[in-house]
Amino acid sequence: MKVLIIEDEKELRKSVVSYLSQEGYLCESAGNFKEAMERIGVYDYDCYVIDINLPDGSGLNVVREIKKKNIEGGLIIVSANNSLEDRIEGLEIGSDDYLTKPFHLSELNARIKSIIRRRNFGGSKDIVFNEIMINPDSRQVSVSGKEISLTGKEYDLLLFFISNKGRVIPKGSIAEHLWGDYMDHVDSYDFIYTHIKNMRKKLVEGGCEDYLHTVYGVGYKFTS
């Protein structure tokens, strides 16, 4: 899951990115309104954590821009002001949650997970697709009750495919989801094929149907 942290306080931004990265998220960050808009214009994220008070603009306007562009992804507004007006305005313009500073990083993590589950999987704690079951909290995957050991990237791939089941996903979108803006330094998609091949093999050997279909010249489609 990809998360964009929009926060001007450098130390807090680093702490959030470090913590969420350890929790298995692919995290990117922006320190001001301009950087945020540049990233939003190029990359897609599963969740956006947005500080209201940015040095060159308002986080509320970031939310407005995201909504205006019809960009998918959960929205959490963060503010040092426990202002009812800010909270109401944030929710009215489309944010999913509001968090007041200071906050525990574990609480932020729990809220991100809740939003992603609600948006992508109907709010269920466990994600189920036929015989596949995923527990996002423990990052455990099982097939018909038998646990399957996946690497971090393989897990991210499976969750991404199930989140987008039935859709044709271009190779570029898969690469961006796995590596974010580090993809700018990659000149081939060979690493994608390796991760997909290994994930596929482990699932099938674990007794899972092969739900992943190659759409030649485009990408992949995960469907029953």
List segments where confidence is low: pLDDT < 50 over at least 5 consecutive residues. Answer: none
Distance between the termini: 23 Å
In one word, what is the shape? globular
- Gyration radius, rounded: 18 Å
The proportion of residues in beta strands is: 15-25%
Helical segment tally? Answer: 8
Structural class: alpha/beta
The structural domain count equals 2
Q: Major β-sheet, in short? A: 5 strands, parallel
CATH class of the largest domain: Alpha Beta
The strand count comes to: 14
**CATH fold group of the largest domain:** Rossmann fold
What sequence of helices (H) and strands (E) makes up the elements?
EHEHEEEHEHEHEEEEHEHHEE
Mean pLDDT: 89
The residue fraction in helices comes out at 40-55%
For the biggest β-sheet, the strand order reads: 2-1-3-6-7
CATH architecture of the largest domain: 3-Layer(aba) Sandwich
Question: What features would you describe in this structure?
Answer:
The protein has helices spanning 10-22, 33-42, 59-68, 84-92, 105-121, 152-163, 171-179, 190-205, and strands at residues 2-6, 26-30, 47-51, 53-54, 57-58, 74-79, 97-100, 127-129, 132-135, 140-143, 146-148, 168-170, 212-215, 219-222. It is an alpha/beta fold. It has two domains: 2-121, Rossmann fold (3-Layer(aba) Sandwich), CATH 3.40.50; 127-222, Arc Repressor Mutant, subunit A (Orthogonal Bundle), CATH 1.10.10.10. A hairpin with a 2-residue loop joins strand 8 (127-129) and strand 9 (132-135). The longest helix has 17 residues, at 105-121. It is globular. The model has no long low-confidence stretch (mean pLDDT 89).
